Structure formats: C-alpha cells, structure tokens
Amino acid sequence: MAKPEASALTDLFDDESDGFAVRPVLTTAPLAGPLSYLVPVEMPTGALVETPLGGRTVTGVVWDQDPTDKPLDFPRSKLKAVGQRLDAPLLPPALRQFIDWTARYVLSPPGAVLRMALPRAALAPPPKRTLYRSPLTGPNPEARMTVARRRALAELQDTPALPAMEAARVANVSPAVVKGMAAAGLLEAVTIIGDAPMPVLDPEGRKPSLGAAQAEAVLALEAATRAEAFSVTLLDGVTGSGKTVVYMEAIAEALAAGCQALCLLPEIALTDQWLDRFQDRFGARPLVWHSELSAVERRRAWRAIGTGEAGVVVGARSALYLPFPRLGLIIVDEEHDGAFKQEDGVRYHARDMAVVRGQLEQAAVILASATPSLETLANVDRGRYARLALPHRHGGAEKPDIGLIDLRSQPPERGKWLSAPLVDAIEEALANQKQSLLFLNRRGYAPLTLCRACGERLECPHCTAWLVEHRLHGRLICHHCGYSARPPTNCPACDAEDRFAPSGPGVERVAEEAMARWPDARVEVASSDTLAIPQAIRDFTQRMAAGEIDIAIGTQVLAKGHHFPELTVVGIVDGDLGLGGGDLRAAERTYQLLTQAAGRAGRAESPGRALIQTHQPEHPVMQAIAASDRDAFVAAESATRQMAGMPPHGRLAAIIITGKDFAATERTARVTARAAPRWEGVRVLGPAPAPLAQLRGRWRFRLLVQGRRETHMQAYLKEWLDPLEIKGGVRLHVDVDPYSFL
Ligand code: ADP
Ligand code: ZN
Question: What is the C-alpha to C-alpha distance for residues 451 and 458, in angstroms, rounded to an integer?
C-alpha cells in the first residue's frame, strides 16, 4: 500500500477506510509518553517502525492504547504517518507493560526505558558470514596434502557448512588450516547473510546427584517453574551450598516446559566459571548479554531472544529488558549485590524490577544469596516471598573459621599493612602448598598522595575526590570521573620537589609488601585494572584453580562467586573500610562483602580460615561476622532501620541537582526544596551539598525524601516536581530507592 501524505488525509476518514488507524507510538526520544501517529491498520501492536519526529527519523514501537487516555483533541489530518516497518521481532506485550511500569516507578521518560530495550545494534543489517564445507565437486586434486589437511578433509566430509572456528574444532586443526585449505581448493568457502544459529540446550543433559536439602529445594523450584504463575522464592544458602547447582535444575525445568529462562549475575567477571558449569550441565552455552558484546553478537542475541530461539540468557542487569516472548523463569544470583542498581540514566534496581517483570510475565522468580538483602528478608517475613534454605556446604566442606585481628593490640609494622597473625597464617599456607587471598576493596597503590612539606593532598580538578595513585600505570587517577595525570614532581601548593608520600594502602601496595616478604611466592593482583577484559579474568581464575598462584591480592572482583579448591586462607586487610561511609547500608554492605570474601576459604576438602583485620572488633558487624550469626545481625540491623523509618520499613527517594555554576545550582536546590508539598508521613531533608560536592566539574546538591512504607512516593514526587521549571544549565534527577548517597 502506498503511504498517503498525512496532509492529504481529511478528518472525514477517521473511520480508517484509508487503511490507517490512529495509534500511539512510543519512540526512543525522551518524551513524556507515546505520540499519536497514523499506522497501517494491519500493523500489529509491538511492531518496530521508522517514525518521523521533529524533522528526524527515530525508532518507534506501535504501543498499546491506554484505556484511560482522553480521545484525541487534535485533527486527524495533522497527524503524521509512520514510515517503514523494521525487520525485527515484535516487542512482546509483557515487555511493553514492563517498560511503562519501570518508567512510572523510577520517574524516567518511557522513551528512555525503551532505548535500553532497543539497542541500536539490534536493528543493524544482518552480518555476512563465511562457512566452510567439503566441495561438492570434490577437493582440488593438485593441492598439496599434509597430515592435518588429510585428517580435516576426512572429518569434514559429511558435516554441513561450518564457521571456521567450528570446522577447526570438528577437524581438530587450527582455523588457519581451515582457511588455508579453502584457499587451496580443498574446502569450499560459502558466504551467507544472517545471524549464527543458537546451540541446542539439552535439559536432560548431565543431571547432578543432589544432597537431601538440595533435592528438596529442586523439587520446590521445579514446581514453581512448572506452575507458569508468578512466584518469588529466596534461595538462601551459605556459600558453597550448591545454590547454582540447584537453580540450574529450575532452568532445565523451564526449558523442558518450552519456556525461556533468564539469569542475572551482578558482574560479568563471574560469568566465565558459570558458563563452564552450564555447558557441563546442558551440553552447550547459553546466550550471554552484557556491555562488552560486539555489534554482531548483540544483534544476534537480541533477535534470537525475540524469536524465542534462545532458551537461556545469562547477563548483567540490562538483560532484564530483552524481548523474551515466553519468559518462564528469572533468576537473580547474588541478589543482595549493589551492582544491580543502575546509577545513571534510568536509575532502576534490577532485582526489584526482575520481580516486577516476573509478575507481568506470570513467571517464577528465584533470588539467590548467602547474605540476602534486608529488603528481600522483609518480603519473606511478610509472606510475599517463599524461602528455601541450603544450610550446609556441599560435600561436607567445613565453614571457614573466622577470626578477628585487633589492629590496636597487634598493629602491623610501620609502613606495612599485614599484622603478625595474618603473616603467620599465610606462611603456614605457603608451607603446606595452599593458597591465600588478601582482600582489600581499594584499587591502585595508595588512595591518597600528600606533600610531606606542606600537607597538600592531590585532588581531582573536576571532583571532590582524592587522586588515587596507580603505580602499575604510573598515573594518578580519579575514580569518579576517570581524570588521570602523571604524578607531579613539585607540589602544586608549596612547590617542594619530590616530597610526595603515598598514604594508606591499595591492592598494589599490599602486593608490594607480600612480594618483599615472600620473594619466592607467586603473588598476583586482581582488580578491575588488571582484569579489565573477560579473557584476563578467565586466565586468572584458571591459573588460580591450577595452583599457579600462591597469594592473590584482590578487590571485590575476587570476593564473589569463584571457587578455588586450594584456597585456605583469606585475609581481610581492612575490615573497617566499608563502615566508614556511614550511609544507610554501610553495615549491611560490609557484612555481605566480608562474609562473601571469607566464604572463598576452604571450599573443598582443605578446611579454611578467614582473618579480618579491624580497629573495632567489638563492632556488632564484626561480632556477627566472626560468629557467623546472620540472624543476629539481620535482627539488630532491621530493628535500627525500623526505628529510623528507613528501608525496608520506610521509603526513600533522592533528588540530585547539579550545575556548573555554584550559585545557580544552590539557588535551584533551595527553590526546589521550598516547593515540596506537605504530605503526612513524608519528610524532606536538605538541600545539602552532596558528599561528592563536585563531579566532572558540576556542583551537586542533594535532597532526601523519606516516606512511610505506604506512601505513594511516585505520586508525591510528581506533584512536587512536574510543575517545576529547571533552567540555566541546572539539571535535576530523581533516584527512587537510592543506594548511593554520594
Ligand atoms: P553456591 O552457588 O551456593 O556458592 P555452588 O553451586 O557453586 O554453591 O556449589 C559449590 C561447589 O560444590 C561447586 O564446585 C559445585 O560444583 C559443588 N556442588 C554443589 N552441589 C553439588 C552436587 N549435588 N553434586 C556435585 N557437586 C556439587
Ligand atoms: Zn574526577
């Protein structure tokens, strides 16, 4: 059908006899909602279309009619018609509802949420791929033969055309041999256009033999998955109890029922071992979704999910917005992890939104953790989530013995960071050919550099933050904005030459100490600086598992998920580090991180030991960790929050106002605060300069809104902020359920 000129349509044709209907179309532009367009009547809801908008063409999706919408008070003849339909799977109904839901909850424009769900690469043209097969006309008889070539030829005789990597694997030669054979006429190279197919997963595969508690949990999760109804289950098990083993059986159940399953992991660093285990269980790898995918991989993944060809997806939080047409199971592993909160753009918490998506999809949701968040435990208490417990480590591995080292009575030597009891424990491990892990959640060499002549501290020119020395790169780096500079020789304040001294430890400095103390030991640093790419993480974990490292020194990259059988000593260099921030979740985060880190010790036959260096061994958090008494910690922490009306017993939202001009920003913050509506049970605190008072050259002010659990926070914020006009280069953003208070 020819596309009519919108202007040629008259209002007489509002009966769709011109083949067009007035329909809402949501575009990726950050507008308040969908706009009305003329859409061919046969075009289904959820179709992706080229959409004219303000002289540009943007991607749009034919959206659902909101029944509460007023009839259009706009002449039909003024409406534009949408352009071409794009070649892509429909955006499924539950995802459309989920996008609207997220937008309403986090107070973002729905178009901004849609943009997360529609990565640009998903709409790129299909890639060209080269496949190899044995020539239909037979191999070139003149070509030179080698043993490898002959073998490859035999192996590839009856296979379909395969990509070079695959063909190489089948023939047990290198991809270069395959390509060389094609050049010599021994194989035929065929070019095809389209995405690579998905490997087939086998839900039967290799089933584990389960322990009693595991078997019980598997039964319950299988039932929940089969029900094809919404449910949330907390899978609550100590580290090493087999949570992953157990929820993989729920994935098998979803696959067997013909449903798709999604597993969210907090860090892509964790995916590698996970993928190996998955392959072991299901015979092939699932789709992986994270920010490091190439455009071709991204397109393929998005489409295979949208068509339902991909059965299982594992990914970072953004995988939650993928177009699954029949999602039956969502797993959030390490559900307590702060990395599930997105801190820019659309500020959503993937664990909370996973539950929402599960509800919209009528799917089973599993939240797994050894240290569940207080939010999730409160939902268990309220009877909204079920709970399955795995109280013991698999195979009888003992829980690590956790000890506190009082740094006040046993301080390390001057300029050193490891106390005598920790040194002894590492020495013992070295003598027994066991591994040790030193945990310090601080990248770089030293968190602070100061001038010994005048006391000046080197600060980021754009942020309220010290510059962190990274000796590995020979630079001073701002961890907030990425600014980096060569260390100066002269003090910028007093011009003294070469008088700088590092202050405090980072992982590089602790590694220096370990290497000096144990020159024969194999010491390695693991942080996001040294393990920036998945391959590096993979290498590191393999070397660690193979016993090629004696002492690993790492940040939180190392605290989670990994399983190292010969690791017997975990030393927490600075147990107090997390408590310093003093925000709402400081105690909870410290408890979780240290428990996770300690849980790395002694996961196999060798019993493990964790030693925590602290200046405040009497602190309730330290006492609870040392006693492995989670219930006591949770009860005390929850009571404190209850008294203060804090989450999970109350609601919070943060408003952050930023601008380059200090006075204008501060003025806007004050005007905003004055406009706050008065609601019963809602308090507004601030404005106050943010702890991170300047970031990337912008001044920052914060307001904190505290409400009761029954407060409709979004309604309150809309009543307050919708009428406000923010001008003069000042920006305001809202963070519902904030996790960062910087
Ligand atoms: P969690 O996820 O609770 O930390 P994992 O699922 O990673 O625990 O299990 C810890 C270790 O124990 C892994 O090496 C895993 O392969 C092993 N394991 C757990 N349960 C079983 C089982 N039923 N059969 C064989 N190995 C198991
Ligand atoms: Zn900075």
Answer: 8
Residue 9 has pLDDT above 50, yes or no: no
Distance of CA 595 to CAs 432, 555, 620, 627, 628, Å?
A: 25, 14, 14, 11, 8
Tens of pLDDT, residue by residue over 389-412, are: 999 888 776 777 889 999 999 999
| Ligand sitting nearest the alpha carbon of 468 | 2
pLDDT tens digits for range 730-740: 999 999 999 99
Residue 44 confidence (pLDDT):
96
Instruction: List Cα–Cα distances, 643 to 381, 640, 649, in angstroms.
Output: 17, 5, 9
* Ligand 1 cavity residues, CB under 6 Å: 208-211, 214, 237, 239-245, 394, 563
Q: How far apart are CA 531 and CA 540, in angstroms?
A: 8
State which residues have CB under 5 angstroms from ligand 2, the bound ion. 460, 462-463, 478, 480-481, 483
| Closest ligand 1 atom to Cα of 246 | 6
Ligand nearest to the CA of 479: 2
Q: What's the pLDDT at 605?
A: 65
Over range 415-423, report the average pLDDT. Answer: 96
AA letter at 463: C
Q: Are 491 and 500 in contact (CB under 8 A)?
A: yes
List residues bridging with 39 in a β-sheet: 21
Indicate the SS3 state at residue 684: strand
Measured in Å, residue 243 CA sits from the centre of ligand 1 at 7
What is the distance in A from the centroid of ligand 1 to the CA of 490?
55
Residue nearest to atom 5 of ligand 1 (CA): 242
- CA nearest 593: which of 384, 425, 371, 303? 371
Instruction: Kindly give, in sequence order, each residue whose CB lies less than 8 Å from that of residue 527, ignoring residues fewer than 6 positions away.
Output: 443, 507, 554, 555, 557
Digit-coded pLDDT (tens) for 651-670: 999 999 999 999 999 999 99
Q: Are 698 and 660 in contact (CB under 8 A)?
A: yes
Mutate to test the pocket of ligand 1, among 394, 398, 560, 596 (most ligand atoms within 8 A of CB): 394
Does the pLDDT at position 111 exceed 90? Answer: yes
- pLDDT, one tens digit per residue, over 52-68 is 999 999 999 999 988 77
Crossing angle of helices 243-256 and 212-226, in 10° steps, is: 30
- Convert the pLDDT of each residue in 166-203 to its tens digit: 888 888 888 898 899 888 888 888 998 888 888 899 99
Closest residue CA from atom 15 of ligand 1: 242
Q: Residue of the nearest CA to atom 21 in ligand 1? A: 242
- Ligand that comes closest to the CA of residue 467: 2
Give the pair of three-digit tokens for residue 433: 């050919």
